[in-house]
């Protein structure tokens, strides 16, 4: 739907992490006096350690420990000087041994995150372009943010989607010199591999293509001399490939290393690679430990260590293959992933395994999409086969119980990870709690009186308004404005309503709430492909409406059960439709809803604020002015009221053919000039059906001072159940907009008209909250909860820059 704004993203992550922390599965502390790699003590309980990234267990090797201790005794705890000036006495030996391992002189960095920040802005030139794999490590994506400042295009593809990669290469080929594709060798969450051989074939097809691999999770346990998974496949490093390895994780020490066959480029990175120049160097103890580890890597012992781990991986894998557990990307890496889909299931499963004496990693957003939550299990040489077998038995026993405890089921997990076998059908069912669900696909089959009692009096979704919307947005010729409607009413066994809502299914622009600069870039691309970066969305309410789309009887003892029942039914529909995103929107902040929706796998994001006016007790313009704050009153008397006399104001229930064409052009003016909420342009058919409906009327503003008395403004307004006035859409001629304060005048005329009709509420909707507040509107913050197949669209928009590079490479 929308790119999450930066602060909103931070707030969302904080809320997710805080929720996991409250469940006791994150931000834990090991309490051991002595660590052995095999077990951990957490909250007084000893657990077998299945969460390490030290896959070969070298961090506990006595040779590395003794080397680190000796280095501290000889050289101190650190060597406080930039490596540009002078390196500590052990560096030369480490670099020599790493060169022997790879056959290439290395660049040693403090860690991989700082390494990427040093290397990527140096190797990627202004005339180059970058394509990121959607799941490439955050540290790589973060370093690429620096490229956008320089106007370098940074594109993104879906995870390991080579067809999409080829399309992006073709797109950049006339604009860029080199094209860098950046990926992980082994991905840290699911443990799957980059398609390296296929990528090398693409390099033959496109000589511009260069590859940048972060192989920190492939290091040591794979490859000759433990040089990693990528080199295990490639055998030797081609000129067009840059490779990042690590001296931490499996290597057992600290730091990272870049391998590059181009000696001139390597020197350029060393001469000015940001953190390489200005950051502290590795501590003597870390360098010494790395030297000791390199000695092991250069000896035949590395092969036996790799075999020992491989044997345990195959044993674990063979046990898992004989279960029905939903393991994702089951292969021969030491990283395994048990899918749970819902965060609450992951929390419950982690807690159960903790209680059984197994430490595992809950994998939650943003490391994985919210609906791809799960348990990451990693193996190391420290793990013994007896506890591996017992872990699998515990997983088999507790997974069904964790599902049941969290209201989840195996089918929902399979659906979330795209391994659907059968999709459940929506049924009007009675359930054990006594709730009964009515599901319909037209408002015509919902009782009008009951619907209006529950959800009338707001926006355009009273019963009559929804009847209009169903008619107006059945547009097979306009797929972007062709919606399906879905209604849910949940009652208790006595017929008392507990919950009621409606959803629409259709296409949304992924940048609907993104910054305007991003929407402007995407609209340029949509000139060639109108449906570029759009998604099939099952969303609460509709893109035409705003307000509280979901009635919940919170005082009812079954309210929470009704919400969970709704989510179950809506998610079934979501999978039936194969939608890209599920959106629950326009809620006010509510702690109970936050908890329920988060545990069910939804992310909360902030929506635009909505504006309403409920003070219509005034009887004259002068009285209206007194309802405003002193500052707003001054603004009204100076910027709005004096301009009223410049217009002939006409209110009509019907428009002529000419007027309809004129007003539609005015609407298009506003739509094309405003991308703050970037939706599709409605076809003229919608306005024709609006004009035919008795509850719609039109406020038209004609400019008196011009000879032709031109129509310069229109407000399209809906009258909801003799209660609420809804100025839904607006049209303006921008030639006169600024001089005559046209927008403000239209707002004021809508307020006056509501008063004339004795309607007690005005729903002013989203956007322009500053202007509406000055006319007495109350501003109400709103939030939405979203669930997506993946994070791709949101992260892709994060790669867009302020100014797109369009000039071809020279």
UniProtKB/TrEMBL annotation:
Protein name, UniProt field: Aminotransferase class I/II
Record keywords, A-Z: Aminotransferase, Transferase
GO MF annotation terms: pyridoxal phosphate binding; transaminase activity
Superkingdom of source: Bacteria
Annotated ranges, domain Aminotransferase class I/classII large: 46-394
The organism of origin for this protein: Flavobacterium laiguense
The keyword Transferase is assigned to this record: yes
InterPro entries recorded: Acyl_CoA_acyltransferase (IPR016181), Aminotransferase_I/II_large (IPR004839), AON_synthase_class-II (IPR050087), PyrdxlP-dep_Trfase (IPR015424), PyrdxlP-dep_Trfase_major (IPR015421), PyrdxlP-dep_Trfase_small (IPR015422)
Names of required cofactors: pyridoxal 5'-phosphate
């Amino acid at each position: 739907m929308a790119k999450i704004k930066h602060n909103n993203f931070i707030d969302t992550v904080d809320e997710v992490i805080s929720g996991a922390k409250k469940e006791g599965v994150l931000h834990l502390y090991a309490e051991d006096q002595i660590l052995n790699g095999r077990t951990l003590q957490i909250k007084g309980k000893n657990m077998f350690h299945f969460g390490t990234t030290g896959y070969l267990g070298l961090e506990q090797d006595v040779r590395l420990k003794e080397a680190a201790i000796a280095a501290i005794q000889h050289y101190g705890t650190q060597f406080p000087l930039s490596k540009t000036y002078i390196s500590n006495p052990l560096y030369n030996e480490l670099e020599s041994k790493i060169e022997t391992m790879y056959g290439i002189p290395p660049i040693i960095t403090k860690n991989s995150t700082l390494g990427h920040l040093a290397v990527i802005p140096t190797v990627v030139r202004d005339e180059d372009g970058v394509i990121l794999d959607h799941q490439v490590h955050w540290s790589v994506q973060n370093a690429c943010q620096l490229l956008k400042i320089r106007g370098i295009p940074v594109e993104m593809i879906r995870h390991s989607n080579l067809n999409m990669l080829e399309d992006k290469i073709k797109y950049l080929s006339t604009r860029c010199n080199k094209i860098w594709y950046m990926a992980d060798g082994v991905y840290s969450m699911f443990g799957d591999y980059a398609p390296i051989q296929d990528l090398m074939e693409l390099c033959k097809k496109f000589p511009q293509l260069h590859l940048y691999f972060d192989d920190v999770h492939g290091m040591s346990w794979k490859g000759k001399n433990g040089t990693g998974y990528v080199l295990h496949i490639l055998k030797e490093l081609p000129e067009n490939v840059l490779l990042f390895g690590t001296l931490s994780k499996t290597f057992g020490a600290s730091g990272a290393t870049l391998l590059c066959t181009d000696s001139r480029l390597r020197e350029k990175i060393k001469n000015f690679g940001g953190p390489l120049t200005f950051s502290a160097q590795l501590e003597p103890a870390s360098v010494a430990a790395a030297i000791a580890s390199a000695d092991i890597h250069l000896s035949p012992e590395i092969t036996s260590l790799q075999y020992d781990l491989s044997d345990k991986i195959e044993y674990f894998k063979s046990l898992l293959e004989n279960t029905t557990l939903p393991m994702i990307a089951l292969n021969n890496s030491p990283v395994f992933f048990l899918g749970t889909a819902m965060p609450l299931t992951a929390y419950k499963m982690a807690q159960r395994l903790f209680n059984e004496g197994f430490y595992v990693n809950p994998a939650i957003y943003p490391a994985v999409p919210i609906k791809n939550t799960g348990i990451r299990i990693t193996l190391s040489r420290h793990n013994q086969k007896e506890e591996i077998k017992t872990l699998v038995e515990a997983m088999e026993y507790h997974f069904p119980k964790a599902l049941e405890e969290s209201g989840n089921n195996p089918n929902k997990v399979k659906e979330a990870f795209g391994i659907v076998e059968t999709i459940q059908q929506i049924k009007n069912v009675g359930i054990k709690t006594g709730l009964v669900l009515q599901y319909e696909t037209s408002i015509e089959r919902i009782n009008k009186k009951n619907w209006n009692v529950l959800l009338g009096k707001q926006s355009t979704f009273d019963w009559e308004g929804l009847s209009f919307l169903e008619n107006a947005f059945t547009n097979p010729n306009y797929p972007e404005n062709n919606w399906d409607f879905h209604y849910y009413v949940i009652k208790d066994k006595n017929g008392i309503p507990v919950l009621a809502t409606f959803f629409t299914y259709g296409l949304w622009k992924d940048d609907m709430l993104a910054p305007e600069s991003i929407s402007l870039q995407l609209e340029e691309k949509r000139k060639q492909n109108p449906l570029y970066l759009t998604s099939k969305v099952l969303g609460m309410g509709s893109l035409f409406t705003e307000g509280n789309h979901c009635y919940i009887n919170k005082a009812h003892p079954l309210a929470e059960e009704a919400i969970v029942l709704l989510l179950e039914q809506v998610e079934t529909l979501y999978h039936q439709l194969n939608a890209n995103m599920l959106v629950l929107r326009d809620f006010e902040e509510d702690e109970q809803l936050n908890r329920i929706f988060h545990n069910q796998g939804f992310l909360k994001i902030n929506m635009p604020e909505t504006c309403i006016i409920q003070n219509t007790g005034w009887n004259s313009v002068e009285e209206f002015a007194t309802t405003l704050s002193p500052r707003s009153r001054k603004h009204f008397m100076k910027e709005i009221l004096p301009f009223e006399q410049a217009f002939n104001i006409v209110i009509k229930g019907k428009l002529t053919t000419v007027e309809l064409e004129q007003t539609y052009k005015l609407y298009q003016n506003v739509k094309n000039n405003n991308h703050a909420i970037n939706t599709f342009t409605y076809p003229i058919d919608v306005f024709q059906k609006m004009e035919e409906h008795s509850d719609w009327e039109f406020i038209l503003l004609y400019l008196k001072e011009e000879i032709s008395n031109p129509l310069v403004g229109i407000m399209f307004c809906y009258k909801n159940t003799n209660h609420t006035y809804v100025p839904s859409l607006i049209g303006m001629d921008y030639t006169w907009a600024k001089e005559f304060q046209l927008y403000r005048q239209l707002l004021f005329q809508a307020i006056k008209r509501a008063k004339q009709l004795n309607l007690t509420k005005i729903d002013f909707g989203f956007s322009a909250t500053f202007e509406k507040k000055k006319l007495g509107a109350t501003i109400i913050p709103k939030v939405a909860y979203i669930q997506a197949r993946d994070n791709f669209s949101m992260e892709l928009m994060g790669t867009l820059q302020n100014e797109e590079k369009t000039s071809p490479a020279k």
